[in-house]
């Protein structure tokens, strides 16, 4: 997924930052990272939603 994101001009981060707009996480995502993203108002999506976003430019409703 990192290569796909970078190929679509997205910046990939390994940690949650204040300016993070979207967090794509799998089934084993660390709860502290997910919670930090929620607290900052970051959009959280799974791999299926990420693929949909890449294909359509739209983020599916959670």
TrEMBL record:
InterPro entries: BRCT_dom_sf (IPR036420)
Gene3D superfamilies in the record: BRCT domain (3.40.50.10190)
Tree of life domain: Bacteria
Protein name as catalogued: BRCT domain-containing protein
Species this chain originates from: Salmonella virchow (strain SL491)
């Amino acid at each position: 997924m990192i290569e796909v994101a970078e190929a679509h001009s997205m910046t990939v981060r390994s940690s949650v930052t204040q300016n993070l707009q979207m967090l794509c996480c799998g089934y084993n995502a660390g709860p502290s990272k997910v919670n930090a993203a929620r607290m900052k108002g970051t959009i959280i999506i799974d791999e299926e939603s990420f693929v949909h976003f890449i294909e359509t430019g739209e983020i599916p409703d959670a």
